[in-house]
Amino acid sequence: MLLANWRLVKELLETVDVALEVVDVRDPITTRSKRFEKLCNELGTKYVLILNKSDLVPRDVVRAWVKYFEEFEGMKAVPISAQKRLGTLKLRKIIRKLSDKKPLIVGVFGVPKVGKSTLINTWAGRHATRTSPYPGTPGYTKKAQLFNVGGGIYLLDTPGIIPAEGDEAEVIIRMNPIDVIRNPVATAMMLIKKITTHNPKAFKEAYGIDSIDSDTILRELAIRRGWVYKSDKEPVITESAKLIIRDYLDGKIRFYVLPPGKSP
To answer: What CATH number did the domain enclosing 64 receive?
Structure first.
């Protein structure tokens, strides 16, 4: 995985007119970068928080996050689903309101697996770089590239990835390829606890497993998938742990966090 150093991020911010910080709307707080936002403020760079994957979250929760960021943090927040091409026209209009420069250079930034490349591909079309499915696999940007998306707007695909700053589980799964995570079982257990805290029925909905116990979920999932050791028929929970991490990243496990102060 190619991590961008902060000096490079600063240099890139100095070349753009507007910066987009892409986050995962399911848990925006742990997928944002406060260090990046502070740097934008220090440089006087206009930036917009992009709440991506909004199709995975109820509309009232998306609206609540927009309200939270705009009213409590003074940040412009725009919900989109880059995968389904939802909200990108509105985003274009908002960017144009921030600056009427032509050409207008827009930088796209974000921590791993929040949909940064998907957004660029959606806007830039067939000329865009191929989206890489998981952190650390081939396809991540190795150098800055400009894409003409029409209307005098150019997207700058930024080299490297901003380091994740969220909770321990998020940092591990976003900063490492799944197959090289040192302890996928421990990581999956942290993730299961986080998910079930916000949606106790998540694993029943995803896999038909009616439990919130991490060990039970890992064991039952392995048995259902036929992942057992030949010698003693014990479940191979490392495989079920990796599946849970992968399905979480892909949005196959229903999960989202409510904004501070909002009740279920």
So the answer is: 3.40.50.300
> Per the structure block, which two tokens stand in for 259?
């904004």
pTM over 0.85: yes
**pLDDT tens-digit map of 136-190:** 444 444 456 788 888 888 888 776 678 888 889 999 999 899 999 999 999 999 9
Distance of CA 129 to the CA centre of its chain: 18
DSSP string, 172-234: HHHHS-GGG-S-HHHHHHHHHHHHHHH-TTHHHHHHS-----HHHHHHHHHHHTT-B-TTT--
25 and 113 belong to one structural domain: yes
One domain, residues 223 and 149: no
3-class SS of residue 3: strand
The answer to whether residue 259 sits within a structural domain is: no
Q: Over the stretch 188-218, which tens digit does the pLDDT of each residue have?
A: 999 999 999 999 999 999 999 999 999 999 9
Give residue 69's domain range: 6-157
Domain count of the chain? 2
